[in-house]
Amino acid sequence: MRAAVEWAQAHETPWPRDILAHLQGGFFEGPPDNEVLGPAPPRGGPAGIVFRKGIRVAEWGDTQRPDMTFSVAKSYLALLAGLAWADGRIPDLDEAVLKRAAHPAFEGAQNSRVTWRHLLTNTSEWEGTLWGKSDLIDRGRNLGVEGQGTKRSARPLHAPGEYWEYNDVRVNALALALLLVFRRPLPVVFGERIADPLGCSDSWSWRGYSTSTIEVDGEEMESVSGGGHWGGGVVISAEDQARIGLMVAAEGKGLVRGEWLRMCRTPCALNPHYGFLFWLNSDGAKWPAASRSSACFSGAGGHTTWMEPEGEIVSVSRWLDPAALPGYVERVRAG
Q1: What b/e readout covers 295-314, taking b as 16+ CB neighbours within 10 angstroms?
Q2: What is the pLDDT of residue 287?
Q3: Is the peptide bond between 14 and the residue preceding it cis, with omega within 30 degrees of 0?
Q4: Cβ neighbours of residue 259 under 8 Å, at least 6 residues apart?
Q5: In the predicted model, what is the mean pLDDT of the chain?
Q6: What is the DSSP letter of 141?
Q7: Element of type H or E holding 46
Q8: Do residues 315 and 303 lie in contact, with contact meaning Cβ atoms separated by under 8 Å?
Q9: Which string of DSSP letters, residue by residue, matches 169-233?
Q10: Which among 46, 232, 234, 282 would be 20 to 30 A from 70, CA to CA?
Q11: What is the pTM of this model?
């Protein structure tokens, strides 16, 4: 495993340490859409852990330092949705979100047709402005050229369920909907039902924006973000991420139902590389060195929790240059 560790250490993300300046500088988009609304602490250095058959076989960097994770938070939202589904709070994934999450965000000719399945698969085509951010910011987003100054294209909307797009505003709508069905802050639910039972530290946090506080049953609650695009999101250590990855790899360990995790790992109809907010390798094209049953939680800047059933591998890599991820996967599999 030494070759994998050396590779990770030698291929640090090109992102600067000052994350706030990076976001304000327009990595994702230019002004005024680049306004940062949530916390964006500076980052640490490359770090990671590899488990094989439940045994820690490698680590590097400061694995206890909490750092931003960006879109890894999306996969954590999928875990929370699984809890709501198991509780009966979301009895039908093909039911309109508005039925269980009464809020103006889910009203109107377009958004009233959005279902839970649509939100979980990034096919909702939800439209509007949430927490001061318009869905138009990410409409036409191309992940392949992220950070290269390419402008979005305000393409026409499709009907919900007819188009796949990676859109952070729509994922934030899912976070709002889950807050409305749990009637409790999502970090509290995540802590009580996932992080604490797994023995996670108390250093992690999950935040939203200065604009995302609403009143629920007479109490003010912050709706979290599904990434760090405009600040906020999950700040967590590699150690705690590994605990969560090991839980998912072990079919939920009684915390999240195995049936739900299998649905998360099932490709959606419009993208073979995406399930319920999990990245997949179902055709072997995304990570050629990994097995086709591999699944990942992935975040901008180089954050990956990779779970591979065949090799019984759970890997957490932080601040690894995304271009170097295939080489890292190849070296981990080679052992």
Answers
A1: bbbbbbbbbbbbbbeeeebb
A2: 87
A3: no
A4: none
A5: 95
A6: -
A7: none
A8: no
A9: HHHHHHHHHHHHHH-S-HHHHHIIIIITTTT--S--EEEEEEEEEEEETTEEEEEEPSSSBTB-E
A10: 282
A11: 0.96
